[in-house]
């Protein structure tokens, strides 16, 4: 851990991007080469294994039956918020700066968009998440329906979310004109992993809060297939196009006939 701290606490990008301030250590290789590949393998193989062995358990295990008043606002807030956060990650990590520049998006425009868009998405996620946690703790039937794995899931989900929000607040919102330039470090490292040409040196001088955020994210991926988070992979996109499910009363005499349509 002291090696991480030595890397940089302040996040001063004093060195040229890609030119690390020190030699790579064993811990660097473990965190920025081994862990990413382990997490990719665990999430892919784990999801396939879970699908093959536990298709009936492939569910979000909705607790709508237990309580719906808090769930009605907290769940959409959390889900729409985290969807925004995920889209922001795709834009920030997958798309190289050269591409955004070629599209006429200046650093200032990118930074403002990331801070405003990411900030709103992050805030909505956190409010929704706090609502979901409050409901799980306070509503007895939801608390009783909570498994030990649910608690582990909530904890491992909260850590990257709060660390990401903290890093963004400290380095991007309060950290000077363009904030910390993660597109020259974290994003380059991220793509190097996907291209099977790992470049851990780009992570050495990244601010500690971002390093911890990324490690927490990868640990969450390792847990993913073994939790109710599997439902993310089968998000109900088909709901938008599938035919309506028609419910009818068993007893036609009791059925209330309403005019169809709007
Ligand atoms: C390898 C995985 C990950 C990497 C490399 C990564 C990287 C980053 C970076 C660079 C930022 C700053 C974005 C900005 O300010 O423009 C950020 C913010 C954030 N991240 Fe991650 N992240 C990862 C995984 C995760 C996961 C799994 C979660 C959620 C469970 C998450 C949640 C957040 C949140 C809430 C923020 C705050 C800003 C926002 O709303 O976008 N991240 N992350």
Total helical elements:
9
Order of helices and strands: HHHHHHHHH
Bound molecules: protoporphyrin IX containing FE
Mean pLDDT: 87
Summing up helix and strand content along with how strands pair, one would put the structural category as mainly alpha
Helical residue percent band: 55-70%
Radius of gyration: 22 Å
Cα(first) to Cα(last) distance is 62 Å
The major beta sheet can be summarized as:
none
Beta-strand content bin? under 5%
Number of strands: 0
Query: What spatial form do the alpha-carbon principal axes imply?
Result: globular
| Unreliable parts | 1-15
3D architecture notes:
The structure is a single chain. With 262 residues, this protein is mainly alpha-helical. The protein has nine helices and no strands. Helix 2 (26-53) packs parallel to helix 9, helix 3 (69-94) packs antiparallel against helix 5 and helix 5 (107-138) packs antiparallel against helix 7. The longest helix is centred in the middle third of the chain and has 32 residues, at 107-138. It is globular. The model is unreliable at 1-15 (pLDDT under 50). Protoporphyrin IX containing FE is lined by residues 85, 88-89, 92-93, 114, 118, 121-122, 125, 157, 160-161, 164-165, 168, 172, 182, 186, 190, 213-214, 217-218, 220.
């Amino acid at each position: 851990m002291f090696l991480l701290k030595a890397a940089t606490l302040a996040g001063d990008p004093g060195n040229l991007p890609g030119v690390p301030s020190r030699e790579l250590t064993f811990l660097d290789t473990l965190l920025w080469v081994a862990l990413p590949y382990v997490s990719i393998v665990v999430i892919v193989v784990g999801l396939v294994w879970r699908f093959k062995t536990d298709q009936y358990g492939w569910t979000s295990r909705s607790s709508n039956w237990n309580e719906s008043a808090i769930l009605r606002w907290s769940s959409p807030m959390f889900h729409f918020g985290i969807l925004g956060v995920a889209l922001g990650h795709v834009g920030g990590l997958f798309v190289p700066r050269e591409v955004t520049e070629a599209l006429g998006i200046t650093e200032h425009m990118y930074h403002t968009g990331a801070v405003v868009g990411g900030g709103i998405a992050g805030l909505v996620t956190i409010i929704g998440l706090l609502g979901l946690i409050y409901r799980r703790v306070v509503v007895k039937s939801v608390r009783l329906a909570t498994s030990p794995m649910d608690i582990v899931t909530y904890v491992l989900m909260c850590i990257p979310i709060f660390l990401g929000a903290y890093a963004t607040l400290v380095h991007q919102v309060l950290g000077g004109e363009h904030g910390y330039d993660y597109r020259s470090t974290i994003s380059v490292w991220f793509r190097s992993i996907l291209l099977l040409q790992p470049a851990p040196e780009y992570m050495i001088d990244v601010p500690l809060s971002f390093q911890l955020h990324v490690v927490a994210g990868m640990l969450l991926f390792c847990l993913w297939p073994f939790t109710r988070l599997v439902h993310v992979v089968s998000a109900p996109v088909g709901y938008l196009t599938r035919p309506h499910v028609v419910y009818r009363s068993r007893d036609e005499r009791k059925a209330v006939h309403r005019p169809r349509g709007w």
